Please model this.
Amino acid sequence: MNSEDREFDYKSLLTWFAKHARPLPWREHYRPYEVVLSEFMLQQTQVVTVLPYFARWLKRWPTWSDLARAKEDEILKMWEGLGYYQRARRLWALAQHLESHAISELPKEPEALMEYPGLGPYTSAAVASIAFNQAALPIDGNVRRVLSRYYRNTEVSPSKGQDAFLESKLLPIMKKIKRRRELAQALMELGASHCSPRQPDCEGCPLFKTCSMESVEEAMKFPLKKARPKAVPLTISYAWVENKGKVLLRQRPAKGRFPRQWEPPNCESEDSDESLASLMSLLSKRQLKKVSSVRRDFTKYKVTWNSYETTVPSSYKIEGFDFYDVDDVKKMSLIPVMGKEFNLKN
Ligand code: SF4
Model:
């Protein structure tokens, strides 16, 4: 039989999930608000990181209605450390939409969920299947990896063609079984455990007997990816400019990266010397002391944040920036990396 023709071995996967599912708080009652919150927080973020944020968030805003009435700055502050702040804003916008239209609960079907702000194809399918036990397949990187390996699917990943193929395999199964939410989560969980990108544990996997992969080495080649352009180096030099318990900051504009979050004076360039020279020029050539350097790799850029500090007299001014008390700054949402460093310093 062609590997793409076989039926997915959902029974073995469900048996494994019944024994090994992690006891996660949003799995206790499958309340839609909690499932939506978990899905927003889990995008690009690991479960272990999300857990304390999830607990704090629910304590502060236990319902859609509570969240709708929150202030943006407080929401961003609560999200600090999770990154990708757009997720927090979208979740808040969804809560406000529900509140302003007097909608007490989300619809169950993925197509209807997609009509709501902030809910794209993946999140709609995840909420429909996990919160409402509907036949919908949330295809994230984990699910794509498990299924493309299982079927030895040779389409480039991610692609619409591949997702349509995976749905054609799984949706008929989901329609005929009752344990749909378990199946969706089992696929995700298998991708996050045994069927990992770099070190799949095929021998311990519940799908080992029926999976198309003939070796761990072969599994590591799937899903097939398009070659990516090389990431470019980018240096961001920034300075904590301090005066008697106050720091110099400005709020970023409402459009673009990190909208309405706060930042100290900073300059970026693909050339690290130029980045520092621009910062020196912005600060009228003040003496700067280097504090730290942090490096992170993203798809397009390899970013290095170099942080400096200097003390200035109270008459010191830079256009667009103002001094704020350190205690007030602790309640403000600073942009990532800089915010983390500020919290450690103060
Ligand atoms: S047998 Fe290996 S490749 Fe196949 S699903 Fe399991 S871990 Fe993934």
